Automatic annotation (TrEMBL):
Pfam families: Acyl-CoA_dh_1, Acyl-CoA_dh_M, Acyl-CoA_dh_N
Superkingdom: Bacteria
Protein name, as recorded: Acyl-CoA dehydrogenase
Domain Acyl-CoA oxidase/dehydrogenase middle, first and last residues per copy: 135-230
Length: 412
């Protein structure tokens, strides 16, 4: 089996254009607002600036890299998308400017695959055009977020309508969303843990019965993760997305590639941290030599370089399996777990090499570390992925007497 991640010339050209656009246009444009000491731009000027960046991205053909060409996208496969996401994520706003940021990215894939023609025109088209934003409402405070079969939010049929009651939280982008994809339990005669009990609904926002209680403060501040109380929310039957009882399948379909897209962006952050670590080591003189000449620092650099190499290979291989239509669940779980943890370790080492400067907010490392901690439970906690990886490894051995298929199915 040939494994070749060399990009075609046209894709190398796209990567170069994305890199140039992000480095030469996006980063300089938003720097005055993000400067911690003096924010030169007002909020209104900032909004005008970032929406103008979106317009320019579209003009330059760098819009919707993850979507098919017939829907206005760049038509890239997941391997090619990896290099676009990695370049875009060199700045926090990069993926959003190219309109390939979470949660809209995953919702676009979901609507394209599960939506009716009418739903695609009403909900998907505005997302693609960048005139609306969305959210995905699944997680609840009363039950484990990693087990959606336990969802308590209920949807009960009342004539031609559904009446929905429940409680959601950490719903990213909810306050900016024009609509939500809401997961609720509709089948009450199935045993607990059944995967056919939930249904997905499309909810136009704002809506009577959808109560945005608060933005939850996190380690990195209040950044758009809402707590929602749903009280007697009424929806027509046409609001069902993907068919009754398919909410679990829809959610898993959405989360698989979305997990890998997160990894693509995390690799970019890890690479930035490693660059900063090496730059600091070559600049800082202490006890008779540069930090770069000291073995302890060299080990941190070496460990980070090896981990980043592994991250890239894992993501590229998982992406190639998605592009080939193969079962990618184990590889994506492995990549999600490994990349999230590597990001935490690499940023932590970069802070260590920078000393007190790294702990301060004079560099981006402190904020990067706060965000990195989130990666270990976003889209599935470490332990859930480890459990699934172990289950599939055991299944492979039981079926074939070998664990080979559970370790990438590679030719060695």
């Amino acid at each position: 089996m040939a494994i070749d991640f060399t990009l075609a010339p046209e894709h190398e050209e796209i990567r170069a254009r994305v890199r140039a656009f992000v480095q030469e246009t996006v980063i300089p444009a938003v720097k005055p607002f993000e400067d911690s000491e003096e924010k030169v731009l007002t909020r209104e000027e900032y909004l005008r600036t970032i929406f103008d960046l979106r317009r320019r991205a579209r003009q330059e053909g760098l819009w919707l890299p993850h979507m098919p060409k017939e829907w206005g996208g760049m038509g890239l496969g997941h391997v090619e998308l990896a290099m676009v996401q990695a370049e875009a994520a060199k700045t926090r706003l990069g993926p959003w400017v190219l309109n390939c940021a979470a949660p809209d990215e995953g919702n676009m894939h979901t609507l394209l695959h599960w939506g009716t023609d009418e739903q695609k025109e009403r909900y998907l088209r505005p997302l693609l055009d960048g005139v609306k934003m969305s959210c995905f409402a699944m997680t609840e405070p009363e039950v484990a977020g990693s087990d959606p079969t336990l969802i308590r939010t209920s949807a009960v049929k009342d004539g031609d309508e559904w009446v929905i009651n429940g409680h959601k939280w950490f719903i990213s982008n909810a306050r900016r969303a024009s609509f939500a994809i809401l997961i609720a339990k509709t089948e009450f005669d199935l045993p607990e843990g059944a995967r056919g009990a939930n249904t997905a609904f499309l909810v136009d926002l704002p809506a009577d019965g959808w109560n945005d209680v608060r933005e939850i403060e996190t380690m990195h501040g209040s950044t758009g993760h809402s707590e929602i109380v749903i009280t007697d929310l009424r929806l027509p039957d046409s609001a069902v997305l993907g068919g009754r009882g398919n909410g679990h399948r829809l959610g898993q379909y959405r989360l698989g590639p979305a997990r890998l897209a997160h990894c693509m962006r995390w690799i970019s952050q890890a690479e930035t941290a490693l660059d900063m670590m090496v730059g600091r080591a070559l600049d800082r003189f202490s006890h008779g030599s540069l930090l770069a000449d000291k073995q302890g620092v060299q080990w941190m650099i070496a460990d980070s370089a090896m981990e980043l190499y592994q991250c890239k290979l894992m993501v590229l291989h998982a992406a190639s399996k998605i592009d080939k239509g193969e079962d990618f669940r184990t590889e994506v779980s492995m990549a999600k777990h490994f990349v999230a943890n590597s990001l935490n370790r690499i940023v932590d080492r970069a802070i260590q090499v920078h000393g007190a400067l790294g702990y301060s907010t004079d560099t981006p490392l402190a904020h990067m570390f706060q965000h990195a901690r989130w990666a270990r439970f976003a889209d599935g906690a470490d332990e859930i992925h480890q459990m699934r990886i172990a289950e599939r490894t055991i299944e492979a051995y039981r079926a074939t007497g070998s664990t080979r298929s559970a370790t990438g199915g590679l030719p060695l």
